[in-house]
Design goal:
Methyltransferase, Cobalt-precorrin-4 Transmethylase, Domain 2; alpha/beta; five-stranded mixed sheet; 3 domains; Cobalt-precorrin-4 Transmethylase, domain 1; globular; 11 helices
């Protein structure tokens, strides 16, 4: 039975491609690539010339049957421009379809911008919350950040250079002085890691270039570095809680679902979250 290989590719430095990935790319009958032009540069570097076809978020519906037909005749490799297919990149649809059709599906792990940035950030990597790319609209972006604002584990998110400053401004609004790491051009010649608060990052990145991964420190229940910070954190918690509930209420989410969602994302007791919901209702009357 032919196999669909999910192949991780370098996120910048071509030397990071694994020997197994290089072998698989040389052996398969077809490479389904997010952008064939990008993938051909990698294949040229390896000195191999397998057939390629485009498979991305804009054409996967039209390409699906053709790729599955190719898979019936021989092994196929699924790759994206950088990193692992299906992680904030196209590919998950093909994986599901291939598995449902009875084909073998194997992963060939490779570099990941998510874990690379988390390791560089210096924040604990025991657990983390991956947000991918935030919404383009400011209102939706702020809502997503507020919903994640009381996560006790670090937040990891991707951003394009032309939207970085807008996102940093929103991070400053929601997180204030909380520490973060802005990882730019990972594994490339001009790799850079900026550590500090969002407002400081805004000053530093006047004209950002290159792909960016941001890692935001998880919410700290106590700040032992400043006297009286516990009370300030309590106020911040209450404000964030009310904002999250208010956003959900505005979107028409039912009380039960809103309380459950906020309690799960923040770790707060449901009775406390429900009390805040009730108080919001009274204030709106």
């Amino acid at each position: 039975m032919p196999t669909l290989y999910i192949v991780g590719t370098p996120i910048g430095n071509l030397e990071d491609l694994t020997p197994r990935a290089a072998r698989i790319l040389a052996e398969v009958s077809l490479v389904a690539a997010e952008d064939t032009r990008v993938t051909r540069r990698l294949l040229s570097h390896l000195g191999i010339r397998p057939r390629t076809t485009s498979f991305h978020q804009h054409n996967w519906r039209e390409k699906m049957d053709g790729v599955l037909a190719e898979l019936a005749e021989g092994d196929v490799a699924l790759v994206t421009d950088a990193g692992m297919p299906g992680i904030s990149d196209p590919g998950s649809e093909l994986v599901v379809a291939a598995a449902e059709a009875g084909f073998n599906v194997e992963v060939v792990p490779g570099p990941s911008a998510v874990t690379a940035a988390l390791a560089l950030s210096g924040f604990s990597g025991d657990a983390f919350l991956f947000l991918g790319f935030l919404p383009r609209r400011k209102k939706d972006r702020l809502a997503a950040l507020r919903e994640a604002s009381m996560s006790a584990v670090p937040l990891v998110l991707f951003e394009a250079p032309h939207r970085l400053r807008a996102t940093l401004a929103d991070l400053d609004t929601v997180f204030g002085g909380r520490q973060l790491a802005v990882c730019r051009e990972l594994t490339k010649l001009h790799e850079e890691v900026f550590r500090g608060a969002a407002a400081q990052a805004l000053e530093h990145f006047a004209s950002p270039r290159g792909e960016v991964v941001l890692v935001v420190q998880g919410w700290q229940a106590e700040d032992s570095g400043q006297p009286g910070a516990g009370g300030e954190n309590e106020v911040a918690t209450e404000l964030n809680l009310r904002q999250m509930l208010s956003d959900l209420k505005e979107d028409g989410v039912r009380a039960k679902d809103a309380v459950a969602a906020v309690a799960e994302s923040t770790g707060l007791a449901k009775n406390r979250v429900y009390q805040a919901w009730v108080e919001l209702g009274r204030e709106s009357k």
